[in-house]
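Reader question, answered in our methods column.
A reader sent in the components of a multi-part assembly and asked whether the whole thing could be modeled at once rather than chain by chain. We filled in our standard form and ran it. Here is what they sent:
COMPLEX SIZE: three components
ENTRIES:
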Amino acid sequence: MSRQSILEFSTPGRGTRNITDAVAKAVSDAAMQTGVVHVFVQHTSCSLTITENADPDVRRDLDTLLGRLAPDGDPAYRHDLEGPDDMASHARSVLTDTSLTIPIGGGRMLLGTWQGIYLWEHRTSPQRRRVVVTVLGA
Amino acid sequence: MSRQSILEFSTPGRGTRNITDAVAKAVSDAAMQTGVVHVFVQHTSCSLTITENADPDVRRDLDTLLGRLAPDGDPAYRHDLEGPDDMASHARSVLTDTSLTIPIGGGRMLLGTWQGIYLWEHRTSPQRRRVVVTVLGA
Amino acid sequence: MSRQSILEFSTPGRGTRNITDAVAKAVSDAAMQTGVVHVFVQHTSCSLTITENADPDVRRDLDTLLGRLAPDGDPAYRHDLEGPDDMASHARSVLTDTSLTIPIGGGRMLLGTWQGIYLWEHRTSPQRRRVVVTVLGA
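And here is the structure of the entire assembly that came back:
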């Protein structure tokens, strides 16, 4: 059995947004006891990640590190039509996740205590982002 | 319900190959309306990624960046039996994706407009690569 | 159809542990012919990866590279309450995988010859880790 919904989020520019509750609601609405939920962004310049949900410094530090691995405006980039964050955003997307899959048991996501689900905007300007949530199970 | 097929691809050496159409055909053949398609490479020196499908410079720039993060012939490598691209290829594989999962709705993949599915060869020599495609849904 | 189990592993500190056999047993117990197995760690400072299963130097080299991309005790980190490996572990988790999905065909995982499934501890101290295994298929 499968049930699907599409979520839309506004992002104010680069940074993470906790979408755990929105995904949890889709899981609850699907009313399945055991299975998985699949979360997918329909974009190549933002991404998804599961990381520590308590200290916002973790997400700030992750952003700092990604900025080193895929620097804005790197002179090696050939793809820079939309500005210095254009190619960097595609690279940040590839190094993190376009989709996540989380187990469902007892009708809810089996996340660990410290795990949160984040939509990670890599562009520096505000965007509208579409996320497809598919629940599979029984 | 699930349906599985195995695709084979030749790669001419390092670089990306768009396999979106081949995966779309497997989805179409499976004739499921809602669910997910799972794509898996049976190798540890190539990988899969979803990225921008319009400008080939994006994939070239991604390759440039991966070459920095996992350089060929790095003096720190102990595993180098098959040449300078051997260990680099395993590392590139780990930093990207061995498998992808894409939602299916209305009988087709719900990719965003700019998303393409790429098989990413990391070895510098030609290879034959096997990709297992599994469609789950109803 | 779906079947779920929870595995627990002790880790002696930073490094990889081959959990392929434990996942294969969960797949065998689920007695499904075709589908996928989803493996998920309920933690944000360890991860999962599929990589070469023959030469232990590959995993050592991967650890060396991750140590460069997300150095212990980096002066840029603001999150360091649990020591120099705290933030580095979260970053290593984000750059690798919190979950893996592997196809099942003929009742067993369709891994390539050289693919092994590894639990990758990023903390330098011993930990107890929970892994949720969900088999989906028929």
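What stands out: Strands of chain B lie at 2-11, 15-18, 35-41, 46-52, 99-105, 108-109, 115-121, 127-137. The longest helix of chain B spans residues 56-69.
Send us your own complexes using the same form.
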